[in-house]
Amino acid sequence: MTGCYGRTKPIFGDFAGWLGALKHVMIVRVKMNKTGPKNLMRSLVQSLHAYVPGEQPKIKGLIKLNTNENPYPPSPQVLATVKAAVDARLRLYPNPTAQPLRERLAKFHRCSPENIIVGNGSDELLAMATRAFVEPACCREGLPARRRHHIIQFFTPSYSLYPVLAAIHGATANAVPLAADFGIPPVAELRRQRKWDFRAALTYITTPNAPSGRGYSTAALESLCRAQKGVVILDEAYVDFANENALKLALKHPHVIVSRTFSKAYSLCFQRVGYFVGHPELIAGLDKIRDSYNVNGLGQVAALATLDDLSNYRKNFQRIVATRDRLARELTALGFRVLPSQTNFLLVRPPVFRAGEWQRKLRGRKILVRWFDYPETSDYLRITIGRDDEMPALLKAVRAILWQPPA
Ligand code: PMP
C-alpha cells in the first residue's frame, strides 16, 4: 500500500503500509473527536441562533392559530389550475425570472416588470437584501461615511427574522424599541433619542406590524423613509387586512422597496411565493444574486391563477377582518386586553394567568396560539384569526380556562 500514505519498508511490505494508513486514520479521527465537525464551520455559524418558526404539528382535531396562515383554502379556480399543471411539465425547469408573473404583477401595481423581483417566499428576498445592500461588519473599512454600510436596522418588536438575517450576514443589527403602544416614534423623536440610525445601510419596517398587528399611516412611513439614507424595506406581508398600503412609496422613492407575499392573504404558504416592488436599479442588483430558478413552477402557476381570481380573495379578506373584529370584542368582554389590529391576527394580554401558561392550557385543549418569550411580548399571546367555525371553540376553551376551579 503506497499512494497518499506513502511510506513502506520492503521488510514489512504491504502490511507496514496498511498499518501506517490505519494509524493515520486513527489520528485524524482522534483529532476530529477532540474538535468535532462543528469546528469545520465558520465561527459565525457556530454561534448563530437560528430563526424559530411556529410549530406545524399534525394533531387530529387541532385548531391551529399560531402561524398566521389563512384559515381558508385557495379558491377552487386556483386549486384546479395548479392540479392541471401537474403533468409531464414537472421535468422541466420553471421560468427562471418568473417573467409571466412579473408582467402580471406589474399590470396589477401599474408599474413595469423591471420594478419587480419574485422570490421563494418573501423571506428569500429579505435575506437577499442583506447580501445586496449591506457589507458584513468585517468589510467596511475604506467605505464612505455617508451610509453606515454594515448596519441592518429594525424596530422591536417586529418580524423576528430580521436579527437572524443580520447575524447570518455578519452585519451589525440596530434594534430600536417601538413606542409603548407599538407605534413608530415620529422622526423628531427618533432624532432626539439618538438610537435610530438614519444612515443604516438597510432598514426593515413591518407594516402593519407583527406581532402587534398595529397599522401605520403611509404619511408617517413616508416621513421616516425621507429621512433614511440607506435602503428601506416596507414589509407588507399582512397589508391586505389593513386600511392602507404604502406601495406608492416604492414607486416614488428610489431607496424604498415594498415586500409582499402570497402566503397570508392569498392562502399560498405551501407554494412559497413573495415579491419586492422597487426601483429597477435595486431590483437589478438583487436579480444578480438570485438563484437561477428560485421560484418553483407550481408556485408561479398558483400565483398567476390567484391574480386572475382577486374578487374571490377580496371577499375572503373582508370575512377574516369581520371575524377578527368580532373576536376582539368577545375577548375584550372576557377581560383580555386586545390591541387594535390591521392584520389577520390579534395580540392580546390575557387575564388571570400568565401568557405562557395560557398558551400551555390552550394547547392542552388542542388550540395552538403563539407566545413570544421576549421582554416586550412575554405578557401577550398572538392569536391568528381562524375560520368562523373555529372561533366559538376558541372562546369556549377560553371560558373553560377562566372559570375552571383552582387546583
Ligand atoms: N414578513 C413577515 C412580517 C412575516 O410574518 C412573514 C411570515 N412569517 C414573512 C415576511 C415571510 O413570508 P413568506 O416567506 O411566506 O412570504
Strand-helix topology:
Elements: H1 13-35, H2 43-46, E1 63-65, H3 76-84, H4 99-109, E2 116-119, H5 122-133, E3 148-156, H6 161-169, E4 172-177, H7 187-193, E5 200-206, H8 218-227, E6 231-235, H9 247-252, E7 256-261, E8 274-277, H10 280-288, H11 297-307, H12 310-333, E9 337-338, E10 345-349, H13 355-364, E11 367-369, E12 381-384, H14 391-403
Parallel strand pairs: 1-11, 3-4, 3-5, 5-6, 6-7
Antiparallel strand pairs: 2-8, 7-8, 9-10, 10-12
The chain binds 4'-deoxy-4'-aminopyridoxal-5'-phosphate (PMP).
4'-deoxy-4'-aminopyridoxal-5'-phosphate binds next to α5.
Please identify the top-level CATH class of the largest domain. Answer: Alpha Beta
Count of DSSP-assigned helices? 14
Dominant shape: globular
How much helicity do the residues have? 25-40%
Largest sheet report: 7 strands, mixed
**What would you say the CATH architecture of the largest domain is?**
3-Layer(aba) Sandwich
Order of helices and strands: HHEHHEHEHEHEHEHEEHHHEEHEEH
Structural class from helices and strands? Answer: alpha/beta
Which superfamily, in CATH terms, is the homologous superfamily of the largest domain? Type I PLP-dependent aspartate aminotransferase-like (Major domain)
Please report the distance between the alpha carbons of the first and last residues.
74 Å
Query: How are the strands of the biggest sheet laid out side by side?
Result: 2-8-7-6-5-3-4
The average pLDDT is 91
Bound molecules: 4'-deoxy-4'-aminopyridoxal-5'-phosphate
How many domains make up the 3D coordinates? 3
Name the beta content range.
5-15%
What would the CATH topology of the largest domain be?
Answer: Aspartate Aminotransferase, domain 2
* Count of individual beta strands: 12
As residue ranges, the low-confidence spans are: 1-12
Radius of gyration: 26 Å
